[in-house]
Amino acid sequence: MGSKDLRAWIETLEAEGELKRIKAEVDWEGGELSAIAWAAIAQQGPALLFENIRDYKKGRCTKLFANGLASFGRTAMMMGLPKDTPREKLTEVMAKRYKEPVKPVHVKTGPVKENIIKGRDIDLFSFPVPKWNHLDGGRYINTYCAVVTRDPDKGQLNAGIYRGMISGKNKIGVYLVPVKDWGLHYSKYQAMGKPMPVAVVYGWDPALLVAAGTAFSSECEYDMAGSLRQEPVELVSCETSDLEVPASAEIVVEGFISPDPATYEMEGPFGEWTGFYGEAKKRPVMEVSCITHRNDPIFRGGPIGRRPGTAIEAKFCMEPSWSALYWNILDSQGVPGVLDIMKGHMYLAIKIHKTYQGQARQVAAALWGSKATSELPRILIVVEEDVDIYKPDALLYACAVYADFKEDLVVFPAELGAGLAPILSLEERDELKWGAGLENKLLIDATTNWRTHPICPEWGNRRYPPSCAEPPPGITELVQRRWKEYGF
């Protein structure tokens, strides 16, 4: 069973030696806090609880928690699994749990209601939100959080991870992409000429972050968070809208986004997961109507922009989750032979047992035709059993050996993808104009081509020659047994 809230999660991490309390004074503004978080991830270090932040020694909020899921071990712990659980097992467990949603339950009140702030008392700057990257347009309060909206037609709640920058004491400029769930909700409110209610959850059970960061087809993220933690999410009603949020969340910011583009304000730039800054432009603004929080609340955040040679926190929790999602999509479409899936930073690798020509293309078609298309990495690589998809050099070798670059590279003109891809022009990245980035996708079919490589009896009924690295039967065991005799 997973943690019940952020405080229980912090206690679990500390008991397991997975938490570091930073008691030295840290500057939120000059990049120091962010650099510490980055260095800890690069060193595969623990989660961090900053307890001595400049300008925030006292006041409404004095603590910031980061890197809570910045290892596969902590992602396993989140689900109640041993922290040495292999990465591929994480994907397997997530895929199974996502097929068994756990509905949330509504409660009258909870710790998040210990403090209720409205009107002139609202001040987003009372929370220790750092400047995560030195060229950011401002202080990004929305990084590792859950942004909650409701479909005005269906009534279903949605929680997603979307960036947001403090643009005033009671304003958050947001990167609202129309193709995302909350973008679809927003378009409906615009059609009605009504403002869209929004609630942002900072700090709760980490299962909600993982669910909110995964684009499920129709399931509510609260249901999926419940499935990950194997326990229902307890929800309370917001103060100024019909939205619902976790009862024991640390902080919840409520507000509304106007349907009128004349109210948009500059948002950005921001150091994004691509490793580049997303450009600034006029975007929708969330006007804050209420803030509720626990006594002595802990703000949850973290750096997003990838740096060369380092990972980001999302890698360790979102990559298994997205891999599980893709696996379930393929399973729902009846695509056979899927053995393993690994989502990398800019590519998706899928291992199959090939039983017919064109199977890799069916894999690609099933994914490209799904709701997850906009979130799919630009490159999809399909390989067979002999390739270790967790090793980039093995994937590159498979592409070089098995893929005919004239026939086995298939470009899908999706014109639907992340508007943050730096390869796209400024025009193609305009998410408000196109609804998403005008991004196309690539399949690399690195499986054996049955047309050009028939079964050869002289090769032991294989389609490719035997590997020259394969020793005669029994030799490997012989060498291992005599290894010390050779002088090693």
Notes on the structure:
It is a single chain. Helices cover 25% and strands 22% of the residues. With 488 residues, it is α+β, with helices and mostly antiparallel strands. It has two domains: 6-300, Roll (Pnp Oxidase, Chain A); 333-453, UbiD C-terminal domain-like, CATH 3.40.1670.10. The chain is globular, with a radius of gyration of 24 Å. The mean pLDDT is 93.
Q: What is the CATH superfamily of the largest domain?
A: Electron Transport, Fmn-binding Protein, Chain A
Low-confidence stretches: none
Can you count the beta strands? 25
Query: Which CATH architecture of the largest domain is right?
Result: Roll
CATH fold group of the largest domain: Pnp Oxidase, Chain A
The best one-word shape is globular
How does the major sheet shape up? 9 strands, antiparallel
Residue fraction in strands: 15-25%
Radius of gyration: 24 Å
Please give the count of helices. 12
Structural class: alpha+beta
- Average pLDDT, to the nearest integer? 93
Helix content: 10-25%
Distance between the termini: 47 Å
